[in-house]
Write a structure and sequence with these properties.
FAD/NAD(P)-binding domain, D-Amino Acid Oxidase, Chain A, domain 2, eight-stranded mixed sheet, six-stranded mixed sheet, 10 helices, binds glycine
Length: 377
Amino acid sequence: MRVIIIGAGVAGLSIGWRLLQAGAEVVVLERAQPGHGATWASAGMIAVTGENGDAETPDAQFARYSGLLWPAFAAEIEAASGRKIAFRTDGALMTASNEAAAASFAVRAAASGGKVKFLSSAEAREFEPLLAPDIMGALYDPSEAQVDNRALGAALAAAFVRAGGELLANETVVRFRIAEDRVTGAVSPFATYHGDAFILAAGAWTTRIDALPPDAMPPVVPVKGEMIALAPPNADALPKRIVWGNEVYLVPRHDQLFVGATLSREGFDTSTTDGAANWLQSHAAGVMPALSEWEIAEHWAGLRPGSPDNLPILGETALKGLFVASGQFRNGILFAPAIAEALSSLVLGRAPPYSIAAFDPNRFRDQALLAKAGATG
Ligand code: GLY
């Protein structure tokens, strides 16, 4: 079987790698450089609790499942690529800024069977001495993890190529060839790539392809996120764990502290703004006052792939042979191993080990057809 994947981010490369391992021939076509979209711009958090709390929604359950796959996935990527990706399970603190939040964390901790722990203000500050004295307590999840997302993109690309995959950068797919109700080719300005199956894993750029009928077009929208990296006055000053609070998260990464992230829907604009940098640093300083003095060493923006219901969009579209892996929104890195497992299974005609029925791309089909009827009627 020959599979053409559009997008060399964490999703496209992971799915492609799994398909190669299962014996498929795989070509990945990337509009820019591998691992340089949302994969590069993210904070690399594997934040099952930080992003999803104790929700029982399908995406929260999927996040928990994928989080469990991450340690083995990380070890396998390092072994296959010969590169380090700095996967760390140092845990995370979710800080409470008022008594009600602290009380609700205490209840959650008590109901968690020891999985998460409630820390008083003093205990939280023993864990992370930079925390503001007015923090009312924190929820500590020791299983929260992170990975160096920039190293991850490069390592996945290396693992994919070492496994025999063909990876073409600067190769933008502009449209599909469709015969009856089946995709037969992916067309770039330079070539047409034929295959038995096609996977759209182009993140926020998933919709930038002509000639897809509306009911097969995944309704993905770019959701911009700006981040900054703060440089500590000395390496010892860096927090040890991920810290959440005051609408931001703080992620220690090598010798910097990443602070994220803004959320805005502005199309494909990836410009950075002083306003966002100031907002991020001042909110970070609300959690750890010393951060107001740290220098902003880097500032960047990326585009998350959002969906109308904030759930991922995973599975076969209305067009036979065209699959999609998009709409990961805030959880692209976290979901990667579970998406790789599910999409590679589906494309090979097998049931995914973890059901992704809730993320069926066809759940938007009626709305798309109605919108088209409205536009033409
Ligand atoms: N997962 C973090 C973010 O999307 O900002």
